[in-house]
Specification:
- The protein has 528 residues and is α+β, with helices and mostly antiparallel strands.
- The chain folds into three domains: 16-67 and 108-267, 3-Layer(aba) Sandwich (Rossmann fold), CATH 3.40.50.300; 274-372, Rossmann fold; 389-525, Peptide chain release factor 3, domain III (Alpha-Beta Plaits), CATH 3.30.70.3280.
- It is built from 14 helices and 31 strands.
- It has an eight-stranded antiparallel β-sheet with strand order 27-24-26-25-29-30-28-31, covered by helices on one side.
- Strand 19 and strand 20 form a beta hairpin.
- Helix 3 (43-54) packs across helix 4 (56-64) and helix 11 crosses helix 12.
- Bound molecules: guanosine-5',3'-tetraphosphate.
């Protein structure tokens, strides 16, 4: 086996986030292209199109212009192993994105130079800052007439509350855009066309070839301003999530991507320690530990399988390993752990801390599950969400009732939606954070399970989980409110409120009942 610590140190596991359309897919593709992981530009988009033809599910993605699935791509560059996690840009899939952010050590944030900081960027950055995730910024589409680079830095600082320090600088913009200058290395990639470039090292702005005089003068002036007036870059501040290094470029034209790739390897942290309820787990520990942060059923329509995504948090995961599933207190054998590369997968012999592996799951695994080599450990940090919109499920094909139930159960285990069942009337109600989740569920039920459903509006504003010290208090409450007490997929009782005004009223009427924002019913989620 390879040197474990060296293997861990050379890994960079990061997520790419942005407002839709800023260029996330294009940048991902170009990183893979420069990393030698794919051979032709358009491969990822071509895959997307290819999938449209085999699965209508992707048609939904196309129609809506959203990237729905979170995928994992691993590739090597210059001695480093990069694990890149894509996230859906659309707000309605924020649960998926937030879960993905729990599996990474850093983030690459993409901003459109024409639009500046957008609404989704703000929300995603809030999460990064809450979790103190280091963020590298790439400002894309410099080939368009966008905001001035200094204005973009201000925009980031004012709207995202993080110090922005440029490490590269654009030469021109829009039609006069000629490329980017690496301020730290004083280097410049001089492109003769989209693919071919010459790298010029140790060049002062005044001496950059193949650009116009006024562009050289402007670059020299801007570089002096940056040097004199802006705070210098601090690796410590970046690692603490207080400062973001900023790179400029045009992904579609390959400008700025190679610098970005190299700087991700240089700056982004290797796998970090991770808190469990019991203790802090160091990635270099000998024993393997890991956490399931995502489950995806039917990823490949030909296989109809279910894959749990696990982040290895410490040690080495080897093929055929028997691991301990802490929640079930059971041994779990993983015959064929998978790694992912630009939508293809391969069985892996060994995965190190920081790697993401896929595990075939027959329904035994859940998001948040911890794996160890016997130790009782519970990794924390996977957020759970109180649903905010609800729909009553109407079964359109009674002959497919079983399929409908199975599909809804599996999709809720996958985190695509939350499923509640009426205690008394057995009605099925779905809860979500974003409207689009319902559409995706209906679509997948039909395509993957052959079941058809409609939705009806359901009069509920939010759901809180309920507990009581004694069973009789719960029963009393259920008898009083038989239609609105439901069970989640773990058979935990949930109460569906009609509005915020009801909370205080019910708390006074039933002082023995405790209401919680999440299904874990932890102290900090208690509604008081
Ligand atoms: P996303 O994943 O963040 O949603 O963005 P994506 O990469 O799909 O890019 C959104 C649109 O922006 C695409 O155009 C893409 O070609 C374009 N784009 C990406 N990088 C650049 C850039 O550096 N400069 C310019 N001018 N455009 C860029 P589209 O018309 O929506 O799709 P397509 O038909 O080009 O695939």
């Amino acid at each position: 086996m390879l040197d474990k610590l060296a293997e861990i140190q050379r890994r960079r596991t990061f997520a790419i986030i942005s407002h839709p359309d800023a260029g996330k897919t294009t940048i991902t593709e170009k990183l893979l292209l420069f990393g030698g992981a794919i051979q032709t530009a358009g491969a990822i988009k071509a895959k997307k199109v290819g999938r449209h033809t085999t699965s209508d599910w992707m048609e939904l993605e196309k129609q809506r212009g959203v990237s729905v699935a979170t995928s994992v791509m691993s590739f090597e560059y210059d001695g480093a192993v990069l694990n890149l996690l894509d996230t859906p840009g659309h707000a309605d899939f924020s649960e998926d994105t937030y879960r993905t952010l729990t599996a990474v050590d850093s983030v690459l944030m993409v901003i459109d130079s024409v639009k500046g900081v957008e609404e989704r960027t703000k929300k995603l950055m809030d999460v990064c800052q809450m979790r103190r995730i280091p963020v590298i910024t790439f400002i894309n589409k410099l080939d368009r007439e966008g905001l001035e680079p200094f204005a973009l830095l201000d925009d980031i600082e004012n709207n995202l509350g993080i110090t922005a320090v440029p490490l590269s600088w654009p030469i021109g913009m829009g039609r006069s855009f000629r490329g980017v200058y690496n301020l730290r290395q004083k280097s410049y990639l001089c492109f003769s066309n989209k693919q071919n470039f010459e790298e010029i090292q140790n060049v002062e702005p005044e001496n950059i070839p193949a650009v116009e005089d006024y562009q050289r003068a402007k670059l020299a002036d801007d570089a002096a301003t940056i040097h004199g007036a802006l705070e210098p870059f601090s690796l410590e501040k970046y690692l603490r999530g207080e400062m973001t290094p900023v790179f400029f470029g045009s992904a579609i034209n390959n400008f700025g991507i190679l610098d970005l790739l190299r700087e991700i390897i240089r700056l982004a942290p290797p796998p970090q320690s991770r808190p469990a309820a019991e203790r802090l787990v160091d990635p270099g520990e000998n024993k393997m530990t890991g956490i399931v942060f995502k489950i995806h059923a039917n990823m490949d329509p030909n296989h109809r399988d279910r894959i749990a995504f696990l982040r290895v948090c410490s040690g080495v995961f080897t093929r055929g390993m028997k691991v301990y599933q802490v929640r079930e207190k059971k041994e779990f054998k993983v015959a064929n752990p998978l790694t992912f590369m630009a939508q293809t997968r391969a069985v892996t012999e060994a995965a190190y801390a920081g790697d993401i592996i896929g595990i075939h799951d027959t329904g035994a695994l859940k998001i948040g599950d911890t794996f160890s080599e016997g130790e009782t450990l519970n990794f924390s940090g996977i957020p759970s969400f109180a649903p905010e919109i609800f729909r009553l499920v109407i079964n359109r094909n009674p002959l497919k009732t079983k399929q409908l139930q199975k599909g809804l159960r599996q999709l809720s285990e996958e985190g695509a939606v939350q499923l509640f069942k009426g205690l008394l009337d057995q009605k099925l109600v779905l809860g979500a954070v974003g409207e689009l989740q319902f559409d995706v569920v209906r679509f997948r039920l039909e395509n993957e399970y052959g079941a058809q459903c409609d939705y009806q509006a359901y009069d509920a504003a939010f759901a809180y989980w309920i507990t009581a010290d004694e069973e009789k208090y719960l029963r009393e409450f259920q008898t009083d409110k038989p239609l609105r007490v439901m069970l989640d997929t773990d058979d935990k009782p949930v109460f569906l409120f009609k509005g915020a005004w009801e909370v205080k009223f019910l708390q006074e009427q039933f002082p023995k009942i405790r209401f919680y924002k999440t299904s874990e019913c932890r102290e900090r989620d208690l509604i008081v």
